[in-house]
Amino acid sequence: MGFVIEAFLELQGWKPLAIDATVPLVQVSTCPADHTPLRTLCTLVDGSGHRRVRIGCCPRCGHVTYIDRPTKVWVDQYYRSSWDADNLESRLNRLEQHLPTKLPHEKTGVRIALGLDIDRSRPICEIGCGYGANMKHLANAGFTHVVGTEASEHRAALVSRVFGFDVFTAPFESEDAQRQLARHAPFTLIYSHHVLEHTYHPDKVLEAASRLQSPGDYLIVSVPNHEQEPSMGVLLFMPHLQSFTRMSMETLGARFGYELVDDSHMHPKNVNLAFRKTDRSVEPAPAEQPLANAV
User: Which of 46, 60, 41, 36 is nearest to 16 (CA)?
Assistant: First the structure.
């Protein structure tokens, strides 16, 4: 469209991530929600003109994701050791002192979970538990069997040390995490707050979740809403590999037998949805003009 960047804004703590020749790139050419071939929405070109990164959009559900991206091995290693690792020791010391006495406010997914009529003695699991605040809120509310996964080693270690939860340091869908989680399954609730947008293959994440649940169990997902997600976050923030629409999240859930049961917490800036696992086929309603809306 002929756009030219006139000026860069203050990053406010963000830092550039060099995707240079040392970073191996691969192509992912289909939508994770429905396997539809992606249409190129934007192409980023480096100064030499040799390295190109395309961002694609699904013409059926409006999902936006990187067509060209670092390999999964590279991304997994990035999250394991580099993500959120600035000023690490001093920040972890502050969190270790702060978290046991003053938790941050409950996230939307936690509030949805607290409203569900489920047996709080059955196991629940958080995908990407961060520093453990969500898990602690739910434990305080009477959930007695709380476990989680966290791709970052230092985050997982802090959660185990401060709160004593079982946290497995591996991507949720990985063979190692699935083997350990299977010992606790089936989970009456699996939930995730602003994590799926970071995942390499969100379809493999939900497929793995479905194997750990029985019909009637719940899945709660919160992700940024592409409808009002800043363009910087969609086009220039590679840790957000995925940009979800409500339609793409519903479509993804339906693929693995998840039926939408609560959309009352939807927000223009956040897709907040609760699903229930079924043993039958689920068909979401089609989206209207998804590609045009994404553009």
Answer: 46
